[in-house]
Each structure stands twice: as structure tokens, then as C-alpha cells.
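Predict the 3D structure for this chain.
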Amino acid sequence: MRYDSLTLLGRPIVDKPNIVLLSVGVNDTTALTPRQRWRERLVAVADAFHAAGIGIVAVSRLPPMHLFSALPQPLRAFLGMRARILDQDLQRLAVRHRCLEYLDYRFEPRPEYLAEDGYHPSAAGCAVWGQGLAAGIRERLNPVSPDRVVRAN
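Done. Predicted structure below.
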């Protein structure tokens, strides 16, 4: 997470959305940002959005960096392990901070979902990832109560 996230939040939010989606962690994984600093920055960003009147600050799970074909081994394995550790931190933060919602959408980087660089998502990958996250957000905004579940006979 970059400091500019917090700087941008110092500006007034004119149109307040119901939800903000954060995709975090890849740059911090590759930069080896200390975990404590990463957690503190993430909480500061989430708290700032919450204080600005944003009801839900959703965070997407970190991608499976151990599958990023552009990264050579053993770097790929190392960064994959580091991403899983940060993702576990992210899940714990979401449990402790009521302003954070963890979206457990598992985006598998199939070849067609990766850009030519083998690192960033392609247009198709962004579409699939976005649809999965949108489904998770809809579920959070409109949860189905157990008494409304229709069971097939």
C-alpha cells in the first residue's frame, strides 16, 4: 500500500458510495513491506473511508502469486508464500475491524486471464475477477436470510 492512498483520502469525498473496494497487497508483497506497517496502513485507509461515511470497505484476497508465470522460481514460491501470509493478516484484520469486509474470491490466473507480461491481469482476467468480487459485494449488501432460502424437493 502506498502512502498516496492516505494523501488522497485527505481530500473530501463528494459522492459517497455505499461501498469501497480495495485491492491491496501485491506491491507490498514484492516490496517486502514489513507486515506491521502494512497492517497499520491498511487500517488507516479503512478507518479514513469509514470516517468519511463509507459504510463498507471491502478488501479482495491477495492473488496466488505462486502461480504468476512471469516470476522465476524460487522467487515465485517465495512471493507466493509472502502473499499468503499477508492474506492471512488481511483476514484477521477484517475479523477485528468492523469497517473491513474480506472478499474471499479465488482468482486463478489461467493463461487467458494474464496479460502478455504474465504478471498483470488481462481484460478477460479483470472481467472475471470483477464479476466474482461483484457477486461477493452483492451478497454482503443483500444477504439472504435462512427463512428466504428455497429448497428444491
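Confidence is low (pLDDT under 50) at residues 145-153.
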